[in-house]
């Protein structure tokens, strides 16, 4: 298995533990990652300011992956959604595809639409497979309850991203349970984390995050698990701010899925970046069954 890895902008700058833990897990599972240094921003940050520029930015990444004949694996769900949107739009709208390709030709690039864009979780579930993951589990969890947060861009618009059932997704839950942990049901599991509002309406952004954290904790979760940099920052860094400014004491640690999986695969803490999370997650090692 070989993929062109697309990190996006946020992970290398603000969440290096997501990259390092994902690389460690994928190496353990036999997935080869190819670097394309010419990759640029996915276009998501400007999609509501300049649609064409956002599409061009995404299309350039797709064309670069096509030159290598590689499917793309994306860690960021915003990036995943944006690249899927561009791929879909250029295939469905011939005039848009022609217009963007005319610009890409200046660099000797062309979008043909013959590669797939997959999120990290999709690769683990569909390409690696649950059975292969379970065979590699060295330290299964016992009595560990996890609240899975899917994130908006993985599920909607469902006809474009085609990640999972947008109303009743199960893919992430099954990946969590492959580690021996229990993925619990919680009422607000599909609600927005509030990250898109941060910097625009901080009060509402923190209200949304706080509501989800309270629900997950009251539903019995020991940890909240996610696989998106924006969501993780919301549930880790912003949760710390909520606890400080509002006198709250939710302290429901947020763990990235490759961190959760990596520990159960027997990978030590250093490449998983456990110490770089704002809210301590090292106590999770107390849930190992062996």
Task: Give structural notes.
By secondary structure, this protein is of the alpha/beta class. The chain has two domains: 2-119, Up-down Bundle (Glutathione S-transferase Yfyf (Class Pi), Chain A, domain 2); 134-287, Rossmann fold, CATH 3.40.50. 48% of the residues lie in helices and 9% in strands. The protein contains 14 helices and eight strands. It has helices at 10-14, 16-28, 51-68, 77-92, 94-104, 120-128, 130-136, 152-155, 158-161, 171-177, 202-218, 229-245, 257-264, 269-272, and strands at residues 2-6, 32-34, 72-74, 117-119, 145-148, 182-183, 223-226, 254-256. A four-stranded parallel beta sheet has the order 2-1-3-4, sandwiched between helices. A four-stranded parallel beta sheet has the order 6-5-7-8, sandwiched between helices. Helix 12 (229-245) links the parallel strand 7 and strand 8 (254-256). The protein is globular, with a radius of gyration of 19 Å. The two termini are 31 Å apart. The mean pLDDT is 96.
């Amino acid at each position: 298995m070989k993929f062109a890895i697309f990190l996006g902008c946020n992970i290398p700058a603000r969440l290096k533990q997501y990259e390092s833990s994902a690389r460690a897990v994928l190496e353990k599972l036999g997935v080869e990652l190819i670097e394309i240094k010419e990759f640029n921003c996915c276009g998501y940050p400007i999609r509501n300011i300049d649609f064409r520029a956002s599409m061009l930015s995404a299309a350039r990444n797709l064309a670069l992956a096509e030159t290598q004949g590689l499917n793309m694996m994306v860690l960021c769900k915003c990036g995943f959604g944006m690249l899927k949107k561009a791929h879909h739009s250029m295939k469905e709208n011939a005039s848009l595809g022609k217009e963007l390709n005319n610009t890409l030709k200046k660099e000797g690039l062309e979008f043909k639409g013959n590669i797939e864009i997959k999120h990290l979780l999709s690769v683990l579930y569909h390409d690696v497979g649950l059975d292969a993951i379970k065979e590699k589990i060295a330290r299964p969890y016992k009595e560990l309850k996890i609240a899975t947060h899917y994130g908006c861009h993985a599920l909607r618009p469902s006809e474009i991203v085609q990640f999972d059932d947008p109303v009743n997704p199960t893919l992430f839950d099954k990946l969590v349970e492959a580690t021996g942990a229990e993925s619990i049901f919680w009422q607000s599991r599909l609600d927005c984390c509030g990250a898109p509002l941060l910097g625009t309406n901080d009060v509402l952004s923190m209200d949304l995050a706080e509501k989800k954290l309270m629900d997950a904790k009251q539903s019995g979760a020991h940890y909240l698990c996610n696989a998106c940099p924006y969501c993780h920052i919301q549930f880790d860094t912003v949760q710390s701010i909520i606890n400080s400014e509002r006198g709250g004491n939710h302290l429901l640690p947020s763990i990235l899925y490759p961190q959760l999986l990596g520990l159960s695969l027997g990978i030590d803490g250093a490449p998983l970046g456990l110490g770089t999370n704002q809210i301590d997650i090292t106590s999770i090692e107390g849930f190992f069954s062996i």
